[in-house]
Design brief:
Strand content: 15-25%
Structural class: alpha/beta
Oligomer: single chain
Distance between the termini: 5 Å
Helix content: 40-55%
Number of helices: 15
Largest sheet: 5 strands, mixed
Shape: globular
Bound molecules: zinc ion
């Protein structure tokens, strides 16, 4: 096969991996075998090639060939010898290679931009956040700032010898995932903003795929895989920021809905005689429990939209609120209890709809959990329809404001593990590595 050809589908599909010169059906089989071996090493490593063969049902020679390709793609590395038992030669142990391939999760929110880079095992390598007034900036300006952070983080990873397998950007809004476009993000004032397209012009390697997804859905995945309620197959995640995002894990899967818009709970109308919301409706849930509502009640002199607008990271606003609480300002406790009460009212609907075992509270809810949760739990108990409410408890997330970026990085890792051929090989596999392939 002439690799220099630039015409036709076969060449295109090879550009990000794909086994060179392998017919489509064999390439599919090999891809799924590569994923099978990689997942086994990820879940059970360090383990020997023999152990992988025994566990996967693949023959030893095939495993050897697949492992060579995974090594070339920087996904698997050899450790020292490992004794499988008391007799026989020791095998060389394999483990996930954390040194070359990573994952980058990013987030644009109302008042900050964040990035978390991890290795394939989910260990955090870089964790950064800057306060940024996305609400008061044009989408172009916000995307420029996002691109700058992406460039800086990818450059820092590059200095460590690590290339991200992909970048996923979390945004608090409805997303068209196929085009990487934000359909609408009320709190950012975005409508039809092409995030992935903008990052494709950033100064980062062109072959790093960029995707966009909903922040709360990504955070819900992070909670399910690595949060305080990890492994709880029916959970609802609620994030308290200026907006309120929601993500629903039902039966161990993220509930997407027909358009991927499921879980958008912040703009459910809960008080028709209440306050106007940025989305144009009146009395949305987030006008009752969003960070802006808390700030307005607890520290009215610092309310969003009043006075000279400093860019303030949510951590700074919380520090101010906690400071006043420590000084004995009664408005803080009263405000948090009011937020808790409205959280319980909304949660009662969610429990009736989804019957979760746990409602994980992220963002600022987690920081004020000792004030918010008792009021929320009490209200939920009062309004619940069935015993389901008694078995459902609120818990505070420990992932902080990084939950969405962490979830985004986790999805990048998941995609790499599912399709190792999406990771380009630094040393292409040799002809001998591709079993049973008639070479043209
Ligand atoms: Zn609204």
């Amino acid at each position: 096969m002439d690799h220099s050809r630039a015409d036709g589908h076969a060449t295109d599909s090879m550009s990000r991996g794909g086994s060179v010169g392998v017919p489509a059906d064999q390439a599919t089989v090999r891809r799924s075998n590569l994923a099978l071996v990689l997942r086994h090493v990820s879940a059970c490593g360090p383990c020997t090639r023999s152990a992988v063969a025994a566990a996967t049902g693949l023959n030893k020679a095939t495993v050897t060939s697949l492992v060579s390709e995974l090594q070339a793609r920087g996904l698997v590395k050899e450790m020292g010898p490992q004794h499988a038992g008391s007799v026989g030669r020791p095998g060389v142990a394999l483990a996930l290679d954390g040194s070359r391939v990573g994952a980058l999760g990013m987030e644009v929110n109302v008042d900050y931009i964040a990035a978390i880079a991890t290795d394939l095992a989910g260990r955090v390598i870089i964790d950064r956040r800057i306060g940024f007034d996305a609400m008061g900036s044009s989408p172009e300006r916000s995307l420029d700032e996002l691109a700058r952070m992406a460039e800086r983080t990818v450059a820092d990873l590059d200095r460590l010898g690590i290339t991200p397998a992909g970048i996923i950007v979390a945004v608090p809004g409805l997303i068209d995932a196929t085009t990487g476009t934000v359909v609408v993000a009320p709190n950012l004032g975005w409508r039809g903003v092409a995030v992935a397209e903008r990052l494709s012009h950033a100064n980062i390697a062109a072959d790093i795929p960029v995707a966009v997804d909903n922040d709360a859905n990504l955070a819900a995945l992070a909670e399910y895989t690595s949060g305080v309620a990890a492994g709880t197959s029916d959970l609802v995640y609620l994030t308290g920021e200026v907006g309120i995002g929601g993500g629903v894990i039902a039966g161990g899967r993220l509930l997407g809905g027909a358009d991927g818009f499921a879980g958008e709970v912040g703009h459910v109308v809960i008080d028709p005689s209440g306050e106007s919301c940025r989305c144009g409706r009146v009395g949305c849930w987030e006008t009752k429990v969003g960070l802006a509502a808390l700030v307005r009640m607890a520290t009215p002199d610092r309310a969003y939209g009043t006075g000279p607008q400093l860019v303030r990271d949510p951590e700074e606003r919380l520090a101010e609120i906690e400071h006043r609480r420590a000084e004995g300002d009664p408005r803080v406790d009263a405000a948090a209890a009011e937020v808790g009460r409205w959280l319980g009212i909304g949660a009662a609907m969610l429990v009736n709809l989804f019957n979760p075992r746990v409602i994980v509270l992220g963002g600022y809810f987690a920081r004020l959990a000792d004030l918010i949760i008792p009021a929320a739990q009490q209200t939920l108990a009062r309004l619940g329809m069935s015993d389901a409410v008694e078995r459902c408890r609120f818990v505070a997330s420990d992932l902080g404001f990084g939950a969405a970026s962490r979830g985004a990085a986790g999805v990048v890792v998941e995609r790499a593990l599912s399709d190792p051929t999406s990771i380009s090989s630094r040393t292409p596999p040799t002809i001998g590595d591709i079993e049973g392939t008639p070479m043209a």
